[in-house]
Design brief:
Elements lengths: L2 H16 L5 H5 L3 E4 L7 H10 L4 E4 L1 E2 L2 E2 L5 H13 L3 E6 L12 H24 L3 E4 L15 H17 L3 E5 L9 H10 L5 E5 L1 H6 L5 H7 L6 E6 L1 E4 L5 E4 L8 H11 L4 E4 L9 H18 L1
Parallel strand pairs: 1-2, 1-12, 2-5, 5-6, 6-7, 7-8, 8-9, 9-12
Antiparallel strand pairs: 3-4, 10-11
């Protein structure tokens, strides 16, 4: 057992001892869930995990080895039946919409964009089956080894406006996630794009850890202060820490630098009633399930402190 693995094991044991069961009323204020494939690609296994912790929300990304938008509708129907049987709600449907390098504005690039519209159409259908009106999207990537081309933002804004128009027709909301190597990576980027597109159908999947990893200001409180909390419609939770090299790595909740309690308090003070998801993104002994268990217990402990 390595020193790091030993530390993780001891931290897990301490959290397990410290955490008591939260009441349904206490948890209902947070609408906390987990991205199911961060537990297991098998939805039934993930649902059993959620039940163990009294969680009633699931963020759906991969199901049974495929992205949900690649699964046939029959499988999506099976997923909804399982969720309903166990009284689990889908908090948000994840997609890879616009998580591609921004294509050129030519015939070949237009074909790529058409494929993205088809992906969004599939997402609308699956979100409706799963009972959510929130769809996670992105705002294009720039090529590896380069920097964002500032001249591309007007085009990106227009394409996002078209996506919002389509979402409005479907009575859906688009939850734009800030993520690394994207034109929208940090809190500052997120504030910029939401200011440019004021439509209520476009909100933010606020990922403070992604913001930190992308070199923005500290995500809380500095990054959060840049945002309009009314536009935050989903929040991703995990933890990060800086390495001596200056790079960041994901770690278990409470093992890193993010101020979960402060972020929870600020959102609740504002009156936030949208959803949170643990997006684990690290492993214990190679196991995402063990890591998700560690971070879920730690999150519940953080909630006790709010």
């Amino acid at each position: 057992m390595t020193k790091r693995t030993r530390r993780q094991f001891l931290s897990l044991a301490m959290v397990a001892v410290a955490v008591r069961s939260l009441s349904a009323a206490e948890l209902s204020k947070f609408r906390l869930g987990v991205t199911t494939d961060e537990i297991d690609d098998d939805l039934r296994t993930a649902i059993h995990f959620l039940h163990r912790f009294g969680l009633q929300y699931a963020e759906v990304r991969h199901l049974w080895g495929k992205y949900n938008t690649a699964q046939p509708l029959k499988k999506i129907g099976e997923a909804r039946k399982l969720l309903d049987e166990h009284r689990i709600k889908t908090s948000i449907l994840d997609t890879s919409f616009f998580k591609v390098d921004l294509p050129a504005d030519n015939a070949a690039g237009h074909k790529v964009i058409d494929q993205q519209w088809a992906l969004l159409d599939r997402a609308f259908v699956r979100a409706r089956i799963l009972g959510t009106d929130k769809i996670r999207i992105f705002a294009f990537q720039y090529a590896k080894g380069t920097r964002p081309d500032q001249k591309q933002y007007p085009r990106i804004i227009e394409l996002l406006k078209e996506a919002v128009r389509r979402a409005r027709q479907e009575r859906m909301r688009l939850a734009l996630e800030n993520v690394g190597r994207s034109y929208i990576a940090t809190a500052r980027d997120s504030a910029r794009i939401l200011k440019a597109i004021s439509d209520e159908r476009l909100g933010l999947t606020w990922d403070p850890n992604n913001s930190a990893a992308s070199g923005g200001v500290r995500p809380f409180p500095e990054g959060y202060r840049l945002l309009d909390p009314a536009r935050i419609i989903h929040v991703h939770l995990r933890d990060y820490r800086h390495l001596p090299s200056g790079k960041t790595e994901w770690c278990g909740v409470g093992q890193g630098e993010f101020d979960h309690v402060g972020q929870f308090r600020a959102l609740l003070k504002f009156g936030y009633r949208e959803t949170f998801s643990l997006e684990t993104h690290f492993r214990i002994d190679g196991s995402k399930a063990k890591a998700s268990e560690f971070s879920t217990k730690a999150l519940l402990k953080k909630i006790e402190e709010v």
